[in-house]
Amino acid sequence: MKTLSNFWRRSALTPVLTPLLAALLLAGCATATVPVAQELPATPAAFKSGDGRWTAAAPAEAQARGQWWLAFADPVLNALELQATANNASIQVAAARLAQANALVRSADADRSVQLGISGGATRGVEPGVTPNATTRITAGARLSYELDLFGKLKQTTDAAALDAQSREALLRNTQLLVQAEVAQTYLALRALDAERALVRDTVAAYRDTLQLTERRFKAGDVAELDVMRVRTEAAATESEAFALDRQRAALQNALAVLVGEVASNFELGLDGWNAALPQIPAGLPSTMLARRPDVSAAQRAMLAAQARVGVAKAAWFPSLALTANGGGVSPELGDLFKLSARAWGVGALLSLPILDGGRREAQVQNAGAELDMALVNYRQQVLVAFKDVEDQLAALQLLARQSELQTSAVDSASRATKLSDSRYRNGLVSQLELLDAQRSELRNRRQALQVRSAQYQATVGLVRAIGGSWGA
């Protein structure tokens, strides 16, 4: 250090380089920008659609999410979920990306280790001024090098890669959760459609009975042909709706086949009925449920990785120091290559610091800063979306529960009205129009009740997805 300081005092370049060194120290000592609280969304005390006990917390992606679909108590759904987890293409792609990220971590960490290599070669030629004759030169040796991480550049690079890998792992968890939720929603929608198809076909059968009765009465001269045409129209229109539901079911079944990784042509889901239970998610779940959302964790890790890369870019202003050592042998004959007289070795240290780079390092710092700004905005957006998703599903479940109660009452009333109208029509007390109106009203209300029930299942799965998985842990 004394020799180095004497050199700077004696050097004529001291007045020129001193400001540059000061700038390097200031730039290198600066750390990555730390996001301030004002840049993140304000945490509400509670969700407005909850019971006041919902709060927020930092991401906790390490918590178990569990096999939440078991709460629906449907063996077919359980088997589909396990099959999708093992075979879904999106999950496999996310797993491959995680493996790639882990490999990049090992690659980045390798730069912090000792590097050892061996080399060998042979040349033949004339060396001017040494000998006019061609000579042979055979070499073999090993080279050892190690870069001292004086200013943490290599460590920050490894840290950034590790954070990227953590973000990829969270994205894998998120993909698994999304696929599992989509499998559940598609399956439950298909079962709801099966129930609606059965209802419509029962209604078609009822219309056919009414048509037969009306035709007999027409032949007996009790009703006009117009009454027969009306019933025939209702029966045909309702049967047409049944075929439309069949088409929707085929599309859902094919979509489910893709989710579980099967060829649609070979996938068939039987008509086992809509037997899944509707789990009740308690309103007072702890805040850690929302904290486990893997997309929020992925965005947070990506932001921290971007922050580490700002530090890497700023560390480029510092000099780098590498220690090297090499040894081997040089000989004109292969047999003499490993003799003591042919040995050669050397040790050294290389200190490097670019002085003029056309603004490359400054541009890299600005680029890293811009990446950090984008990552911060993305993280903030993911937090906002997380709150929105929970609010949406909580509000939906509350409103659907009330709607279900009212719709059940409407179905009971419509069913009673149909029975009364059918009895009165068979006794000739009312016209056929009144009976058709009652039947239409009952069908409409029963289908509406099924759709409300289906929406409750969809919202329940949506809430599971919004809070990041199982609520029982």
From TrEMBL:
<dbReference type="GO" id="GO:0015562">
    <property type="term" value="F:efflux transmembrane transporter activity"/>
</dbReference>
<comment type="similarity">
    <text>Belongs to the outer membrane factor (OMF) (TC 1.B.17) family.</text>
</comment>
<keyword id="KW-0449">Lipoprotein</keyword>
<keyword id="KW-0812">Transmembrane</keyword>
<dbReference type="Pfam" id="PF02321">
    <property type="entry name" value="OEP"/>
</dbReference>
<keyword id="KW-0732">Signal</keyword>
<protein>
    <submittedName>
        <fullName>Multidrug efflux system outer membrane protein</fullName>
    </submittedName>
</protein>
<keyword id="KW-0472">Membrane</keyword>
<keyword id="KW-1134">Transmembrane beta strand</keyword>
<keyword id="KW-0175">Coiled coil</keyword>
<dbReference type="InterPro" id="IPR010131">
    <property type="entry name" value="MdtP/NodT-like"/>
</dbReference>
<dbReference type="GO" id="GO:0005886">
    <property type="term" value="C:plasma membrane"/>
</dbReference>
<keyword id="KW-0564">Palmitate</keyword>
<feature type="coiled-coil region">
    <location>
        <begin position="387"/>
        <end position="460"/>
    </location>
</feature>
<feature type="signal peptide">
    <location>
        <begin position="1"/>
        <end position="32"/>
    </location>
</feature>
<dbReference type="InterPro" id="IPR003423">
    <property type="entry name" value="OMP_efflux"/>
</dbReference>
